[in-house]
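#onboarding

Welcome to the new folks! Below is a worked example of what a typical request in this channel looks like: someone posts a single protein sequence, and someone else replies with the predicted structure as tokens. Don't worry about understanding the tokens yet, we'll cover that in week two.

Example request:
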Amino acid sequence: MSGWDKEIDLGFRGFAIAAAVAAVAVIAWTILLGSRARSAPSRCPIGLEQSGARCCAPGQGLSEGHCVGPPQSCPDGMERVEAPQPGCVQPAERIAIGGGSLTLGPTDWDSVDVVKKHIVAVRSFQIDQIEVTQHRYQECVRAGVCSALEGSREPGLPVTSITAEHADTFCAFAGGRLPTPEEWIFAAAGAEARRFPWGTHGLVCRRAAYGLRRGPCSEGGATADLAGARPDGKTPEGVLDLAGNVAELSRSARGVVGVHGGSFRSQQASELKSWSSGSVARAADVGFRCVYAAH
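Example response:
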């Protein structure tokens, strides 16, 4: 074999080796992506760590579904409180919602039985950015206006297992009232009739605390997550947790009470849509937020 032929032969061998190495790398990368796709979905924001079905602050542990112990730090936007037990709490803020109207009706994914075509019209109002927390509710208890809550005192959790009448009392104490169904839906859907509070698509575990009891986001979840712990799921106006975490109470102009938005127990997308509603129950996955007159 001439020197020229040897160079050609070595060149082909080098090319074959490089191609084989590249093929192995592609296979390895495909396996890695596949294993990541099969792993548990990411659902905790920066600053919180996954602990069972909950997102807890660094330094905390999980006990009977609750994050316990002093947090080493809290996520941006949350504050550390010490009583009645240490924890991270999203401060209460109000979000202005401009008045307007939206037309709801069946989409490609909905039947007429799920959502009948109708127009929702509201005047301008303000709404709590997050669900009323245990920490905030204690202000009303200390003032002697609200009844003491039963069960856990994890400060950053939404208030649950409460009657609509007790929610009315707190909202009046705070200078507001429960939202009407129309106000709640308008806050979640906006004038553009968003399917989910954040937009048309993208129901993932980092945006809403749902499917924590029997999947798809976790298993065995017995409580909601911290109010405000899903910043990726906020509305364009900045309202948090209108899908999942806890279902929320409303009261119509006629006094009829309803619940909206699904909860951490919800498994189907239909339960989390902006116009979803359900039967009223005093339960561990039903909470509330208040609305106020526009300034």
